[in-house]
Structure formats: structure tokens, C-alpha cells
Design brief:
Elements: H1 3-27, E1 36-40, E2 45-49, H2 52-59, H3 71-76, H4 78-85, H5 94-100, E3 103-111, E4 115-123, E5 135-137, E6 149-152, E7 158-163, E8 167-173, E9 190-193
């Protein structure tokens, strides 16, 4: 085979290999704003789901399976919020909840008034409400600069920080907040649960 033809075959083979690699990388799901994800603050693992209802079922270890279909409905549904804040271990779900350590510490929303994608924060236990830091997420990664509203849960306060590793401007929220305010809107890069 002439060297020019051999070089063309090698270039074509490498191009096909690179195209295959790119397609594989793009097929990997990313935990990003616009989707409904759960972040386990004890392992820093984030998993995304097809719907808000699915993420809540996973985040509660199967204890809450009838969450409203949209985050906006959930934020205003007193029954759902009470279920979210109920003790994690009910007799019917004791084995599952203990094995999975599923308690929701809060929910972050991409848009104001609980709209857009959501990031449900799971923790091993309810916050102690002692003024001390219970859990943190030192870098919101794909959720960086995306938080506009939030709901704390299970005795937790949510502190948003404008920079990673809990630096920069800090704002603390102790209740459902349809708008985090101009100083923190789309600026959070790390969070703590207190």
C-alpha cells in the first residue's frame, strides 16, 4: 500500500475513534440545572431523575412516592412539606430508610418561585439546630451560579456562599424562600446545612 494511502487510512481510523469517544462522553448524563437531581451531602454523589416525583421518592428512600408532579406545586403543598419533614423512619419504611440514610435537608431551585430544575439535598439525619455546621457541599459543580429559590427541610437552615469552599458572600435561609434575593440570585457556588 503506498504511503499516502496508508496515511489516509490511519487518519480516517483515528477520526472514527475520536468521533466514537466524543459520542460516548456526550451520552454520559450530567447533573445540571434544568433537571431534577439529588445530591447526597455525605458522599457528594449527585444523581438525576426523569421527574421531580422520582427524585423525591429516591431522596426519601421510597417513603414519599406521591410528591406533586412539579416543584412549584410541591412548594405550596402543605401535606407534601409535612411528609418531607416527617421522621425518616416510619414502621413501613424502617429497613429501607435506615439502609439508605435518606433525609431531605433541603431543595434548591433553578428559578425564582420554585421553578426550573431542582437539586434535592439528602443527608444522613435531620439537622441538630445547634448553630453548628452539619453538612456541606463545597462546590455546586454543574449547579454553580444557578440557585434562585429554596426550601430548607428537617430542621436545617441553608447557607449559600458565592464562592466554592464556603467563601465569599454568605446568606442564610431558615424557611421556604421563593427568591433568594439580588445579592445571592444565580451566585451560589457552595452551601452548608446548619
Amino acid at each position: 500500500m503506498p504511503s499516502a494511502r496508508r496515511a489516509a487510512v490511519i487518519v480516517a481510523s483515528l477520526s472514527m475513534a475520536l468521533v466514537g469517544t466524543t459520542a460516548t462522553a456526550q451520552a454520559t448524563p450530567k447533573a445540571k440545572a434544568g433537571s431534577h437531581c439529588a445530591a447526597d451531602l455525605s458522599t457528594h454523589k449527585t444523581t438525576c431523575y426523569d421527574s421531580f416525583r422520582d427524585v423525591i421518592a429516591a431522596a426519601t428512600g421510597g417513603r414519599v412516592t406521591d410528591a406533586p408532579a412539579t416543584p412549584q406545586q410541591a412548594a405550596k403543598d402543605k401535606k407534601f412539606l409535612a411528609e418531607l419533614n416527617a421522621p425518616a423512619v416510619s414502621p413501613a419504611h424502617a429497613r429501607t430508610a435506615v439502609a439508605q440514610n435518606k433525609v431531605v435537608g433541603g431543595i434548591l431551585y433553578e428559578d425564582w418561585n420554585y421553578g426550573g430544575g431542582s437539586l434535592t439535598l439528602t443527608v444522613p439525619a435531620a439537622c441538630k439546630d445547634d448553630g453548628q455546621w452539619d453538612w456541606g457541599y463545597n462546590s455546586l459543580d454543574d449547579w454553580n451560579d444557578s440557585v434562585s429559590s429554596l426550601i430548607p427541610a428537617n430542621n436545617c437552615y441553608i447557607a449559600l456562599y458565592s464562592d466554592i469552599y464556603y467563601n465569599g458572600t454568605q446568606q442564610q435561609y431558615n424557611g421556604s424562600t421563593p427568591y433568594v434575593g439580588d445579592a445571592m440570585n444565580d451566585r451560589a457556588s457552595s452551601i452548608k446545612l446548619l
